[in-house]
Amino acid sequence: MECFFYGTIREGEEKKEFNGVVSFAVPDLGIIFRAQFKGSPYECEYASLLALLEFVEQNPNLFRNKRIEIFGDSFLVVHQVNMQMHCAKELEPYRNMALGYKKKIPYVLNWIPKGDNPATL
């Protein structure tokens, strides 16, 4: 089943309490999730992937016997989680959480262009 994640900060709102947005979509189930988040652009991107993985873990009946393919337009997140790119110290906790989910949920993580990502705002 194809799933998509997207995270960003809102222009001009860097100093506000919730400056970012996390989002994920599971088109086959008609699900789109969005929430406010406080963090850097990369933290928002990781938080959106982690929110999606938590949703998958909490709803095993929806994903049972399905191949889970996750797509995101964050080159950095996709390549760090796939261990194809160095991870900065401040992002390691996020990457390690995503890798922890990989032990529980067999998923494949791939990059797509932002224009092809249905989770974008």
Q: Can you walk me through this structure?
A:
The protein has 121 residues and is an alpha/beta fold. The protein has a single domain (2-116), classed as Nucleotidyltransferase, domain 5, CATH 3.30.420.10. Helix content is 35%, strand content 26%. It is built from four helices and five strands, in the order E-E-E-H-H-E-H-H-E. It has helices spanning 41-58, 60-63, 75-81, 92-104, and strands at 2-9, 20-26, 31-37, 68-72, 107-111. A five-stranded mixed sheet has the order 3-2-1-4-5. A hairpin with a 4-residue loop joins strand 2 and strand 3. Helix 1 (41-58) packs parallel to helix 4 (92-104). The longest helix is centred in the middle third of the chain and has 18 residues, at 41-58. It starts with a strand and ends in a 10-residue tail after the last strand. The mean pLDDT is 93.
The major sheet is characterized as:
5 strands, mixed
Number of domains: 1
Structural class assignment: alpha/beta
- The top-level CATH class is Alpha Beta
Strand content: 25-35%
- Large-scale geometry: globular
As an assembly, this protein is single chain
Order of helices and strands: EEEHHEHHE
Number of strands: 5
CATH topology, by name, is Nucleotidyltransferase, domain 5
pLDDT below 50 for ≥5 consecutive residues: which ranges? none
